[in-house]
Amino acid sequence: MNGKADILHRLRNEILNLELKPGTILSETVLSERFQLSRTPLRDILKQLAHEGYIHVYPKRGNVVSYIDLESVEQIIYLRSTLEKELIKNLASQQSPLSIQGVMKLNEILSRQEACIQQEDAHAAFLQLDDQFHKGLFEWAGRGFLWELIQQSNAHYERYRRLHMLQKEKLKVILAEHRSILSCITERRIEPIDELVIHHLREDIHTPYLRENFAEYLKT
Amino acid sequence: MNGKADILHRLRNEILNLELKPGTILSETVLSERFQLSRTPLRDILKQLAHEGYIHVYPKRGNVVSYIDLESVEQIIYLRSTLEKELIKNLASQQSPLSIQGVMKLNEILSRQEACIQQEDAHAAFLQLDDQFHKGLFEWAGRGFLWELIQQSNAHYERYRRLHMLQKEKLKVILAEHRSILSCITERRIEPIDELVIHHLREDIHTPYLRENFAEYLKT
DNA sequence: ATTTCGAAACTTGTATACAAGATTGGGTTT
DNA sequence: AAACCCAATCTTGTATACAAGTTTCGAAAT
Question: What's the Rg (C-alpha) of chain A?
Fold first, then answer.
């Protein structure tokens, strides 16, 4: 099946992978030939991608894969760190006993991240598990709705993160911080949470790593 | 001019006003006759409204004005209260001196809210100024981006708020709280902010006012 | 009276022709 | 050689015909 949803996912992934690099022109007619679909439904798909920030539409001129906007990345990181430190504190200070399933589910994810670190070439899998961990926290706190809301504006942050995480030594740090966060919840320690979450999400936004190595993908 | 943007705004407003009540069917053909525009661009508009939560699309069956989803309202209120208490604390604890313009702009808004309370029939104006005040806080803290992001998911919260604020005695309380928030910032008092913001945004979500008086507009 | 069936009349979804703005490139003018 | 202009050819935007589900409603069968 070559349904609209599949094509949308496919284009989204190609942009996230950088198979479609920032600046690439996405012409409706070219895409309609590629996917054997007429322009009308393809326009719907492009509208959606534009709404999520994956492409930029120049009226009557064309559609271009958007350049990574570090300003947007910083705003999303602020949003996420603010929200996550709040909801993690909510979990840790919750009166009723914590659900065993919640803890086990997150521990399972962390084990699989551990396994990824051993393997070569498990970067993509590690990042996917990273998302699952954070999504799990949102859902555990009853805030899955807000996770989904943030995902709708993730085109810049997600590409930033993938490039940023190419620095391999970071993976171990991330995993360790995940363990710390989870232990804060289970052991009801509120006090370290703010610093922990801020360090986990905000630490590296200021490093010049991206500007030095991937300037051609960045919005000027 | 009957551009697409105008029609979008118009439909959005009619839904927010409850001129178009939850459950109303929005047929593409009917709308295309009303606005003298063909179905293709109208579909774009409906897609946008659907994305923002104003309408619900039943595939191959039709488009219906969405019922107010109190769950979505609660989630947005949690998001806003969490974010706003953080960014207001950021403003209040900022090292550099506060910009005079920022303070004056917000004070001007509060004066106009004061004026609205005197008049009859200035409900709509009061609510608009309420938005301007909160938007002003976001922008002052350098977070206008996040304000706009939240606005994209405001279909339920905005209708909730308009109905909720019909309780007239609330307006004075709101204005007083706005003044308190602003004074916390200018006088650098961090400590009361959390409670103040939570009270301001979350206080009334639990009251049964809407369920009793406007059950026919609510999602079941 | 009740159920069942099916055609007609709806709905949105897709393909395609045409409109109209934007760009490009070559030939003319200066 | 440089500037200009206009036509050809891109692009997206719009209108419309047609496809394909869904519902409705009445007639026929039980």
Answer: 19
Q: Which residues pair with B58 in a beta bridge?
A: B62
Please identify every stretch of chain B with a pLDDT value under 70, giving residue numbers as ranges.
Answer: 1, 204, 206
CA distance A82 to chain B (A): 7
Chain D positions with any atom < 7 A from a protein CB: 10-17, 20-23
CB contact under 8 A, A153 and B149: yes
Does strand D come within 7 Å of the CB of A63? yes
Proportion of chain B in helix, strand, coil states, percent, rounded to 5:
70, 5, 25
A69-96 core/surface letters (b: 16 or more CB in 10 A; e: else): bbebbbbbbbbbbbbbbbbbbbbbeeee
Determine whether the interchain pair B149/A146 forms a contact, defined as Cβ–Cβ distance below 8 Å: no
pLDDT tens figures, B94-119: 988 878 888 999 999 999 999 998 88
Cβ pair A192, A184 in contact under 8 A: yes
The CATH code of the domain at A70-217 is: 1.20.120
pLDDT of residue B1: 62
Looking at the partner chain, which of B40, B44, B82 has a beta carbon nearest the beta carbon of A86? B82
Q: Specify burial of residue A202 (Cβ count, 10 A radius: 0-12, 13-18, 19+).
A: middle
Residue spans per domain, chain A: 4-65, 70-217
Percent of chain A exceeding pLDDT 70 equals 98
Question: A144, A138 in Cβ contact below 8 A?
Answer: yes
Chain A nearest-CA distance from B75, in A, is 7
Contact call for residues B199 and B177 (beta carbons, < 8 A)? yes
Same fold for the pair A4-65 and A70-217:
no
Inter-residue contact A196 to A181 (CB < 8 Å): yes
Instruction: Tell if the CB–CB gap between B75 and A153 is shorter than 8 Å.
Output: no
Pick the CATH number of A4-65 from 3.20.20.80, 1.10.760.10, 1.10.10.10, 2.60.40.3080: 1.10.10.10
The single-letter DSSP state of residue B99 is P
Distance A35 CA to D6 C1' (A): 37
